[in-house]
Amino acid sequence: MAKQRQEDGKKGVVDLMPLFAKELLAGGVAGGFAKTVVAPLERVKILFQTRRTEFQSTGLIGSAVRIAKTEGLLGFYRGNGASVARIIPYAAIHYMSYEEYRRWIIQTFPHVWKGPTLDLVAGSLSGGTAVLFTYPLDLTRTKLAYQIVSPKKLNASGMVNNEQVYRGILDCLAKTYKEGGIRGLYRGVAPTLVGIFPYAGLKFYFYEEMKRHVPEEYNKSIMAKLTCGSVAGLLGQTITYPLEVVRRQMQVQKLLPSDNAELKGTLKSVVFIAQKQGWKQLFSGLSINYIKVVPSVAIGFTVYDSMKSYLRVPSRDEAAVEN
Length: 323
Fold this sequence. Notes:
The longest helix is centred in the middle third of the chain and has 31 residues, at 116-146. A two-stranded antiparallel ribbon has the order 1-2. It has a single domain (21-312), classed as Mitochondrial carrier domain (Mitochondrial carrier fold, Alpha/alpha barrel). It has helices at residues 2-16, 19-37, 39-49, 53-56, 59-71, 80-108, 116-146, 169-185, 189-212, 222-251, 266-276, 286-310, 316-322; strands at 159-160, 163-164. It is 73% helix and 1% strand. It is globular. InterPro entries: GDC-like (IPR002167), MCP (IPR002067), MCP_dom_sf (IPR023395), MCP_transmembrane (IPR018108). Its main location: mitochondrion. Required for the accumulation of coenzyme A in the mitochondrial matrix.
């Protein structure tokens, strides 16, 4: 009896939650869990993208060994606190706004084709929305991950060899704002938006399109969802990856030597990097990203769908009709 009452109480709490809150919770859990799993690969990838030559010359395994020797196990998670602090609200807003945009489009245009194109549009809009709300935390994550320094070498002013070192998320946000104001907190947001619109849209497009071709008896299979999610992430990321490299380099521009040419404008920066650093630099770290994207997107989508089932979220079309 006590167990039954406990289950009834839990059911009541879940049933009282509004639909958008369930989607926020499901998205936040999915994002935080997936991001933590792939944090070590994310750290190495950022070091590749931002051209720290001592890492690019050693490859993936050599870079991992170098981080382990110089910074220890926690070095693989440098910047992950900022990453998780960003990804939880980002993923929550991303997934929730995707569902909301999708319902809004269906309600506003009742005869719209409820196929992959709808997922592409709703996914693109939701990606841009999530970026605008959480970009300063993404910038902070990149700056913290870019640092390579032993805590023992920090002096009292937080400097090492005249290079600014950030002591944590709040310290980095405060110093970035002091240096450049609001514009400083959103440095690199243009290529992020240019990249996220197609990436977020294509990610949902490929995932939902692949799920439509899964036989009905496998619809609830974890392996089917993982496969659909991994392929969706791979295809979406490959198409938009050069824009991510531009974004990372713009984010750490202030940390580079003063004689480095300043990157201005998304398309101009793509051309500049291709000319000065070689076109291969636009895909630097992509192989690592493939290794990272497979589990990250796959786990994200799978946990999100599982959380929606646990929270008894109705199907998208049913929710659209109810609203």
